[in-house]
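Contributing: when you submit paired examples, paste them exactly as shown. First protein:
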Amino acid sequence: MKEVKEPKTPVEISVNAPHDKGYKKSLSKPGEFLHFLRKYVKADWAMDLKESDLSLCDKEMLERDYEGKEADLIYRVNMSEGKEIFIFILQELQSYVDHTMIFRILVYVVNTLVKYFLDVDKKERERADFRLPAMVPIVFYNGSERWSAVTDLKSYQNNGTIFGNHILNLEYYLVNLADIGEEYILSTNTVLDNIMYCDKSRKKLELAGAIRTAYGRVQELGLQEREEFRNWVKYILLSVCGNKEAVVEEILNWAGNGEDDMAFKYNIIKAFEEEREEGKAEGKAEGKAEGKAEDIIDLLEEFGDVSEKLREKLYAQKNLDILKKWVKLAARSQTIEEFEDVISEDIYE
């Protein structure tokens, strides 16, 4: 009998944000992944699994979907009676919702099972008791926008629900960070728990407090886990502190030495001070620009309705010098069309 090869299946991580690395590293450990299945996926079938039942599939097994994207991780799992399944996870660590997710998953599953089927000896796969491995998809989403994509294939097809079981269907597990309470996350203490806890804090000073809390918790973990979490925090702080290595090291030293919260928060605040002031200045400038755009619209409305397209152009312009020029043009113009013709010659910045 020809040896059955492991399927070539989806797996990737697109590291667009620093925290992506932390999630992938943690979930790449069978013990942490099993913890994720039990606590956050809440999969009953995972309760009897042991860490030794899970093995992470290597990069060579991974393929891309129709858009060239890959899944983030795939595990081969030995179930009872020697039956195997494959669990793959897709991390949506962006602010937007991917409404094609269910189709991407369908492509992964079909491609994987076709390759698995073809890798099995023809005589073996034609046996009456031959079965394909189950493919279990999980989507982990940490964006701020509500997840509104359909979670099953039947709902992605026109009139799919009226055909009952006579239509192709599959469904993925959705783990939405926004729906998980902080108390529930903190009820256990792993690197993954602490990363998820900190990741819920999107405002900078909230993040500071979350990091401080998590640092106190990770002291109870092993040296390797503490270092893993510290590296993740360092990536995060570098991204929000403008890659100021010295400032980040100072913050990390405060946290690592267990100094009092006031001292730790002071150092975090100091690191974010410039960013906060820049944000205020940008906010004031945006407010002035918006006011000028409204002045132009008020002048133009004397000639009729201002189109949505023109409104968008006006509000999109942030250069105050250009907007001041446009106010004068609007006051001199005889029609909205005349105004549009003149500003079309300007370079939008």
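Second protein:
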Amino acid sequence: MDLQFGNPFNLMQWAEDNAGRLKPPVCNAALFPDSSYIINMVGGPNTRTDFHDNPYEEIFYQIKGNAYLNIWDRGHFERVDIKEGEVFLLPAHVQHSPQRPEPGLCFLVEQTRPLGDLDSLQWYCANCGTQVWRAEKQLESLVDDLPAIYKLFYARSDEERRCPNCGTVHPGKDYSAWHAQLKARS
């Protein structure tokens, strides 16, 4: 028998053997890179300021530790907690920012994107919620494509990261400053 993706294997042993790949900025490593699904293990800790718009659903199974998604919806920031042992199906086009403030492990399943179905990343002003910058990409690899977009945003000047509505400068790569601004807002 020829099994294209190999025999069953111990997922937790795989995670232990590949722990070095589960590091920021994305913390993802593909389990089956040539599959018709995008199946990743995601490590932690990791915090982000971008919001991902996926044209398809995402399945999160939080194996170890706790995580949450910052959600941008209907003009408001909201939060969905995903605790250890919980599974969550995120609908398509819900702008979300995965936050993994503690060590952990998440099993993430997404659909591959047909040509023309673009993912986007947005950065918002934590003070007033206005979009500061957006980039779209034909996603081929979460591990390779997202960090390239992050670098583009982080390389922008303070003036280019200034909110067009309230004038607050998005702190770019300084995750803790953005989260502090968001907390002060609420």
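If you have annotations for the second protein, write them as plain sentences, like these:
The chain has one domain: 20-185.
The CA atoms of residues 63 and 140 lie 25 Å apart.
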